[in-house]
């Protein structure tokens, strides 16, 4: 290759020319080229991204320090530019670290960590700084005060785009009213065209961070989101990588860096979920790839012409006739007990028998002798070697017969005998003549043998031997081949050998390993999702579901979903879909996101929602929220706007949404039945009084009170007061088909009520007595509270614990 | 008239009793309920004592628990009020008038949506109060049919009592049966039997041919499904004058039901079978057998005819050997004939050949 290249350009000139134009690219250029990927593609978008990066950083910093976040975002018009200010109450950044955090791209603490965090690459905030500096030419102004620090540090800095290092313009100490925290101020070219996305971002952030207080002040609006819980997200713990999640480059780096000597030690110490057993399985799989397996053959039986005993006898010299004969016979006898035998198994057998003979006959079977015996015995088993006097025509006859049986077993009956014989005949010499007399072969080598044999058979015998048949034969042979006992190379050797590393990686991927632990994840948890939704949406119903952790490519992930329905949620048009990844709202590229795809695929009609055409985003007063938490959320691009369509993830998203939607369904069903109940009640409340009135007229009787009848009709719980001189009786009659837990407060005025000891209690307040009584009345049952009160007592009763539709009060 | 006033007072009292019942249910905090027998063919059974078909034990319940039930009870209450007042004032109205009259009721939910609804409510009230609608002073729109034959009777009319001879005092159309035939008193007769005829055309043919004269027959025109008054009169002719009753209709399933309602009582008014049905009535024809025997002109059975015949096979009223044989024969030949098809043998064939032959077979002549 090298020679060709230099010929091309007629000597060295071209290379020199090329070398002249080759120089390191400054990060400013890199940024310019890639700013759309980083979310700074337009001026409007750039502002949103800058806010997002600064807020994400602020939240992460606060949470890491265990501080409930208090974040203030301000956007000001500043002449031709916009000024962005983001303040937090985080732990602050030390004087030494601060310039690098804001003034150096790809500097961060999280890139190497397998832990759920908002930011990961260490590009975010410094990219925002760079964006500001490139568009306005002004430095970023940063103030930070660490906890306990008496004064705050103030920096004005820009990024030296050639060196990717911070360049500090101003460095001084200052005073700041916050006891600790960080404040960043940047000016940039921008506009407010993406105001909606900005608001969405802030609002959605508030929804998934109910523990944070967030305030946004921009030229035309001021939004405040209060904290609803003091419960910070569970702290995440870093985990070692999972064997299914690493790539080759990472693996080689890890091999280079490890202190372990053996592969087993390396696997167990550097990876999560790998113990002795798992590492053994990985190493076994690695052996198959690295060394290959040894083909096993059926040893010759007593009636076969090949005679292992004779071959061994001939191979052993000067050990005394008796010892030699016994040795040969015992090995041959022992072989009869083998169904199939591989080279190393034969050698082990020879070793065992030799040890025995040594003891018994007091002779020495040295390694050369044993080696010779082993080779001779192997030659007899596979039917090669002149020593046996085998004719050329019969060479490999044993292998042929053996392979014929194998091929015949795994091919369909449609294959005629000649084809099978053809394959076996062509395969046998490939084994017999293979470079490795031990018939030690990798799967690929076996596949190649089969391919050649099959191709030749197809060509010369006019037969067909398709892919399935070939695969079956390869598989059958591979199954009969035995794993070798050789020790795997040590870590240093593997690290230095790219192929071996790759074999190790494949072996790791092939091995079943339990999913990574999920302590590294911090889901919001369903109750806080509900809380967050409740905070931002005044709806009638909320539901949320948090799934169990799953794994994709070695990274654990958890999907959560939430729903809000009814109330003040806009009823017109489509449902609002909120997407989150690691607690960060995704506000762009909705159509490209796996979350949106899954929402559209679900048949929402099953859950009593309106969905024209039976697919797509449902209509109506619904907010759908999905949160994906992972150590490595698969995004479609670096700007982290949309979650990629990964099947494992999609299926979890769907399950989470369905789980939340199931609750919605029963809510809507109940609501509908309550509505019907109300309608029925309304209707009957007009019909029955008319009927009662007419009846009184026709029968010439007094007017009727029909409340009791109505309660019974509505299967309601009827609360009725009966008075009998001084005795007051409150009767609760449950006409419904389920138990009623009621809490009654009867406010008595004018006379002090006297209660027998019981479940009810009396509290006096300003001349009124509050008789409180909680009871459970089972379906169709009745309960009575009795107490005494003077004749001039007045009552005011209230009943709680049941929907209004289900109670009739006649007291 | 004094007897009549008693009936009115009884009827009124029965209605008020019903209202009282509802009132008491409300008063006791219970759900007002009205139970009535299910009025379907699966719930009628033969009453061996009275020889008629009456309702069985199955009941359906109108209860205020449901909106529709509550509406029915409201309507019933309003109707009771109306009927009680009508009886007080000794007036009468037709079923159709009741339907329109409900429009004037002040509560929308009390008004009837269709005349079927008001008709069936009246039937409900008849059953529950055990008072006939005639005694409520409710009458149907169409009056009873006509009678021609050697019978002298006295009818109470609004204009006083009239004595009428049903051949001598009437025109070609015959004597008009009043809505309440119980106002008739039979004075004298020369009749041998009663011949009920389905169609007006055939009645006219028999009268024109002088069949009533020649055979001393009382020709009663049924006019399709006979009105209650017609059936009541027929029953009285049989019971009081001891005349055999025969029924002459078309040869199709619908006509068999006409015979059924004369003979066994109708499903909708099975509560009045004892009062309306004439179990001894005999069927003349057209029998399916006649279609074959006389080789009458026919029409093929339509699907609805076949369904009706099959449904009759399951009707307890038709579960006799005779009817099963006839209906199965008809299903077999797949044909039906009208009464008028007899004219294919000449206009006199029916009076001179068919009827005398059939009545002879039946032992009436």
Question: What do you see in this structure?
Answer:
The complex is a heterodimer of chains A (811) and B (365). Chain A is of the alpha+beta class. In chain A, 41% of the residues lie in helices and 21% in strands. Chain A has 24 helices and 27 strands. In chain A, strands 5-4-3-6-2-1-7-8 form an eight-stranded mixed beta sheet. In chain A, strands 14, 15, 16, 17, 18 and 19 form a six-stranded mixed beta sheet that branches. Chain A has a four-stranded mixed beta sheet with strand order 25-21-20-27, covered by helices on one side. In chain A, strand 17 (576-581) and strand 18 form a beta hairpin. In chain A, helix 12 (321-336) packs antiparallel against helix 13 (343-361). Chain A is extended. The model of chain A is unreliable at 1-6 (pLDDT under 50). Chain B has 365 residues and is α/β, with parallel strands linked by helices. Chain B has two domains: 3-139, Winged helix-like DNA-binding domain superfamily/Winged helix DNA-binding domain (Arc Repressor Mutant, subunit A, Orthogonal Bundle); 146-361, 3-Layer(aba) Sandwich (Dna Topoisomerase Vi A Subunit, Chain: A, domain 2), CATH 3.40.1360.10. Helices cover 43% and strands 19% of the residues of chain B. Chain B is built from 13 helices and 17 strands. In chain B, the strands form six sheets. A six-stranded mixed beta sheet of chain B has the order 10-7-13-12-14-15, sandwiched between helices. Chain B has a three-stranded antiparallel beta sheet with strand order 9-8-11, with no helix packed on it. The radius of gyration of chain B is 22 Å and the shape is globular. The mean pLDDT of chain B is 88. Classes of the chains: A alpha+beta (811), B alpha/beta (365).
